[in-house]
Amino acid sequence: MATIKLSSGHLMPLVGFGCWKVDNATAADQIYNAIKAGYRLFDGAEDYGNEKEVGDGLKRAIDEGLVKREELFVTSKLWNNFHDPKNVETALNRTLSDLKLEYVDLFLIHFPIAFKFVPLEEKYPPGFYCGDGNNFHYEDVPLLDTWKALEKLVQAGKIKSIGISNFPGALIYDLVRGASIKPAVLQIEHHPYLQQPKLIEYVQKQGIAVTGYSSFGPQSFLELNQNRALNTPTLFEHDTIKSISTRLNKTPAQVLLRWATQRNIAVIPKSNNPARLAQNLDVTSFDLSEADFEAISALDINLRFNDPWDWDNIPIFV
């Protein structure tokens, strides 16, 4: 399996299984079946609300001898309500308990946003809840303070690598100047409609690996009934993508995933379908041409589907 060597020294698979929107009722079976299909990277988060079920699937596979724990690469993410240093380990311990693991391979700050703390017993995961109905409340916690708390948990052996998610370049530029442990991974929304080439060039030069989520663009957001997604042509049916897939005898999904992995960007698609599981994993056995890359580059319209400005006018990407 193709991997990326992280700055922490650990190897991260180039293709993984994304746990966002994996239904709780089927999550354990989906994770188990993905392991049987060959997946070793599982990308989850506290906010996804399915870590217990994901943990059930991981444990079943380990207990049955399908895979050893050290062969898995499990990612989770610190949610916004737990940025205060005194709450970071509390949140991580809940994740470890839910996943039934002694450590996670990668733990990311999910967003560079500090919501007001919500006790686990009050609501978990809290989502957008900040202890006051539908009203947003924030805490004055600098990102470096949260990062320093994560560094301590690496030293404690509870996390192998730490990283960031949904961070713009300016915040990364600032964070690396105060960090004792450099971020190992940046996870970002990444598809032909939102390519972010300057950001990717900068972080890769810094030795920070990139994971792209929502590789299929609007497809990832249709079930959320998001207007931008509903009104944007699907990449699966785009003439450019279809033309390349036909010529290479690959699915549009495989083309979109190879467009990322060929540039050493990890991907985390998900599927319930055994055939698509296998197809999504098989995206390093062929190459796109330079002309293909040029054609896909022309599709960039800086269209972002996951934007905290939609939540409460939070200006991360403006």
TrEMBL record:
Site feature (Lowers pKa of active site Tyr) residues: 77
Protein name stated in the entry: D-xylose reductase [NAD(P)H]
GO molecular function: D-xylose reductase (NADPH) activity
Example GO biological process: D-xylose catabolic process
EC code(s) of this entry: 1.1.1.307
Active-site residues (renumbered): 48 (proton donor)
Pfam families: Aldo_ket_red
The species this protein was found in: Spathaspora girioi
Residue ranges of every copy of the NADP-dependent oxidoreductase domain listed in the record: 17-300
